[in-house]
Design a protein that fits this description.
Among the domains are: 93 residues, Rossmann fold (3-Layer(aba) Sandwich), CATH 3.40.50; 61 residues, ATP-grasp fold, A domain (Dna Ligase, domain 1), CATH 3.30.1490. It has 10 helices and 19 strands. The chain starts with a strand and ends with a strand. The chain is an alpha+beta fold and 359 residues long. α1 crosses α9 and α2 runs antiparallel to α3. 32% of the residues lie in helices and 29% in strands. α1 links the parallel β1 and β2. The strands form 6 sheets. It has a 5-stranded antiparallel beta sheet with strand order 13-12-11-14-15, with helices on both faces. Strands 7-10-8-9 form a 4-stranded antiparallel beta sheet, with helices on both faces.
């Protein structure tokens, strides 16, 4: 059973780290530049083109990219989710790439606490709300990665000035309580497992701890509460692979955001763990499980059509087919046997009898 893996991404170092580990497990791996992807929808048929040609089939596809590609990531995941193993649900790309959507989606689960957040479509409404707050506060754009678009406001006047300046970007603004913590925790999730965790510490007066902005990082052993929060948040948005960013406050741990395209360099360096290898192992195991499940369904379908029961050894009569001196068995015999191409088998031969037995 050959397994084929495709990684759709912008080709970052983290993507190449993951692909290197995936190549040790999958039979075939490809790095697919998401910028060269096109989707054609015509008369009920959807075609994905890569570099002008129809994209080949894969057993597993992982889609990664920045918020600029969230619509494309959603579309690709929607197209392939029933064709192969896609670890991240289509909606998860939209949810994780928009901080407002993340907060909105996690809010019904009271165990997934977040900083108090305010959102309004109009800047005038946001300005009116600023008058009611205790300061300092945080202003954020809903979209953005690596800590970009996060602004600290010490007073109502400074917040108003910043909102005026930000209005030029024609984006709504999130207003959040400021939690006076100089660090955050990054948790990497793969399936039902935490595969990496670190604490990121801001430098000097910088309020953002994100390592991409020059903050320091150190190993961190996640508490049972934070582990469970991270797993529950990932499960809530149906992201098999993601990072959860959390701060420890006086009110307990609070989720800041979810990242469906987490970097691997810093956390690998800090934890001294091969995070990419654990991620690749999760992808391989789930892909193998899904493919075996599909093969069993196909076998059951063939057997049902032939009127053959699935349970136990079966014996039936068929005409012997010999091609170029080789005995050729019907396809359903191969499917029923659960043999896999390339497996080692024992062959027992006697007069009028041949047995093939797995090692």
């Amino acid at each position: 059973m050959g397994l084929k893996f495709g990684l759709m991404s912008l080709g970052s170092i983290s993507s190449k780290m993951l692909l290197t580990e995936a190549e040790k497990l999958f039979d075939e791996c490809s790095l697919i530049d998401i910028r060269k992807i096109e989707i054609k929808i015509d008369s009920g048929k959807t075609t994905v083109l890569y570099d002008g040609k129809e994209l080949e089939d894969y057993d597993c596809l992982l889609m990664k990219g920045s918020y600029k590609y969230s619509t494309l990531l959603y579309g690709l995941s929607e197209i392939y989710k029933d064709k192969c193993f896609v670890p991240i649900d289509p909606n998860a790309h939209i949810i994780a790439h928009n901080k407002f959507m993340t907060h909105l989606y996690l809010a019904p689960d009271k165990s997934l606490k977040m900083p108090s957040t305010y959102f309004a479509a109009k800047i005038s409404e946001t300005k009116a709300f600023l008058k009611t707050l205790n300061y300092p506060i945080i202003l954020k754009f809903p979209s953005g990665t690596h800590g970009k678009g996060v602004i600290f406001a010490e007073s109502a006047s400074s917040a108003n000035s910043m909102v005026d300046a930000l209005e030029v970007f024609k984006q709504p603004i999130l207003v959040q309580d400021y939690i006076n913590i100089k660090s955050d925790i990054r948790i990497i999730v793969a399936g039902n497992k935490i595969i990496g965790s670190m604490r990121r510490i801001s430098k000097g007066d910088e309020i953002r701890a994100n390592a991409h902005l020059g903050g320091d990082a150190e190993p961190y052993i996640a508490t049972p509460t934070i582990k469970q929060m991270s797993l529950d948040a990932a499960k809530r948005i149906k992201a098999g692979i993601c990072a959860i960013d959390i701060i420890e406050s006086d009110y307990g741990p609070l989720i800041l955001e979810i990242n469906t395209s987490p970097g691997l360099q810093k956390i690998t360096e800090v934890t001294k763990k091969n995070i990419a290898a654990e991620m690749a192992q999760y992808l391989y195991d789930e892909t193998k499980k899904l493919k075996e499940s599909k093969e069993k369904v196909e076998t059951r379908y063939v057997m049902n059509n032939l009127g053959i029961e699935e349970i136990g050894d079966r014996e039936f009569e068929t005409a012997l087919s010999v091609v170029n001196g080789k005995i050729v068995l019907p396809e359903f015999v191969y499917k029923m046997s659960n043999f896999k191409e390339g497996e080692d088998i024992n062959i027992r031969i006697s007069n009028g009898k041949i047995e093939l037995i797995k090692n």
